[in-house]
Design goal:
One of its GO terms (biological process) is histidyl-tRNA aminoacylation. By secondary structure, this protein is α+β, with helices and mostly antiparallel strands. It is built from 16 helices and 16 strands. The protein has an 8-stranded mixed sheet.
Length: 425
């Protein structure tokens, strides 16, 4: 039997893993500046956490969730997205208490799971970096979250980005728009895809998000939610746009954008790239929005929230396509060359000591001749070599060579163990 990874998953090998670590480190560094702190929630949750929040007519719930009954007959789901689990934890751990600073700012990094057709940048096990902020219903926070998302992408060197913006309004706005959309779509019901027919009366906004080309042609002339906003929803959206203008952040309002999850309201956004990785077509790499009401759905008090999610696989595709890809150095400070079996223990002590002193260090483990060891040191771009043979061991010395200049000196083992950095000064 040939063992292979499951369809829609990927092995992240050491060279690629370095890129993942780079991306995660850059994200953590930026989130710290914005005062966001990490939360880690379980990879699986109760089915209802996602069915209740994502929407029973959404593709995620109806087609894509990995759900099963465990040995205790509990209905379990591998998380398809990050927000609902964070909200569940926020409620369960009472992070809404009056003594806590508002907004409560969190972020997460980890794997998600959706059963869909695998393609470039979209796998069945994929990874997201996301942020969530709770407790403030202020357009200023909407804009700060959007600015942070753009800031993050720009920190990776991405320059050709486009911000698409929309609002889904408040509850009253959505109810007014829902009926208007049903009235518009009903004459086309026979022409709609089966999924859209199912959603027409249950959740007509989902029809706007259909990937069916015929559906897309039908909804192209659908009424805009912007014409059904309440005065307070209009005011919220106008403040968001004005603050983006104040920050010099360009945007395009897309009234047909609804996002793929039912919990969104008010501000929603997508940040797109026209990278060569996507054939020059504008493709979403980061998206999010406001979800006032989600905390209440999972049993918490009335608490507004906003956040975004970014797909790591998709981001790495963009980074690999830009400027020749990520070139991450893997520096080796010292390679210890040992000549003869009698120095084996001492060379092991040397590499351990140098590592404890803060130097990246390696040595030979295959009993190769000195010439082979020096070739390895050169191939690994070692800055220095330390050579120890039987004679040097007897004299309690080693030969220190600068691989760039070729300069070589004899140094005492005691000085190496005491303060190797001083020998390089």
């Amino acid at each position: 039997m040939k063992y292979q990874r499951p369809k829609g998953t990927a092995d992240i090998l050491p060279e690629e893993s370095a890129k993942w670590q780079y991306v995660e480190a850059k994200a953590r560094e930026l989130f710290k500046k914005y005062r966001y702190h990490e939360m880690r929630t379980p990879i699986f949750e109760s089915f209802e956490v996602f069915s209740r929040t994502s929407g029973e007519t959404s593709d995620i719930v109806t087609k894509e969730m990995y759900d099963f009954y465990d040995k205790g007959e509990r209905h379990i789901t591998l998380r398809p997205e990050g927000t609902a689990g964070i909200v569940r934890s926020f409620v369960e751990n009472k992070l809404y208490g009056p003594e806590l600073q508002k907004p409560v700012k969190t972020y997460y990094i980890g794997p998600m799971f959706r059963y869909e057709r695998p393609q470039s940048g979209r796998l069945r096990e994929f990874h997201q970096i996301g942020v969530e902020a709770f407790g403030v219903d202020n357009p200023t926070l909407d804009v700060e979250v959007i600015a942070m998302a753009i800031n993050l992408l720009e920190n990776f060197g991405l320059t050709s980005l486009k911000l698409a913006l929309n609002t889904l309004g408040d509850k009253e706005s959505r109810e007014n728009y829902r009926q208007a959309l049903i009235d518009y779509l009903e004459p086309f019901e026979a022409q709609l895809s089966d999924d859209s027919k199912e959603r027409l009366h249950k959740n007509p906004l989902r029809v706007l998000d259909s990937k069916d080309k015929n559906d897309q042609e039908i909804v192209a002339n659908a009424p805009s939610i912007l014409d059904y906003l309440t005065p307070s929803a209009v005011e919220h959206f106008e403040q968001v746009k004005a603050l983006l203008d104040d920050l010099g952040i360009k945007y395009e309002v897309d009234p047909n954008m609804v996002r793929g999850l039912d919990y969104y309201n008010h501000t929603i956004f997508e940040i797109m790239s026209d990278s060569k990785a996507f054939g020059g077509k504008w493709t979403t790499v980061c998206a999010g929005g406001r979800y006032n009401g989600l905390v209440e759905q999972l049993g918490g008090p009335e608490t507004p929230g906003i956040g975004f999610g970014l797909g790591v696989e998709r981001l790495l595709l963009v980074l690999d396509a830009e400027n020749g890809g990520l070139d991450l150095p893997d520096p080796l400070d010292v390679y210890v060359v040992g000549i003869g079996q009698s120095v084996n223990a001492e060379t092991l002590k040397l590499v351990q000591s140098l590592r404890h002193q803060g130097f990246s260090t390696d040595r030979d483990y295959l009993d190769r001749k000195p010439k082979g060891q020096f070739k390895t040191a050169s191939r690994l771009n070692a800055k220095y070599t330390l050579t120890l043979g039987e004679t040097e061991l007897a004299d309690q010395k080693a030969n220190l060579k600068n691989m760039e200049t070729g300069e070589e000196i004899s140094v005492s083992l005691a000085d190496i163990y005491r303060d190797f950095a001083a020998l390089l000064a």
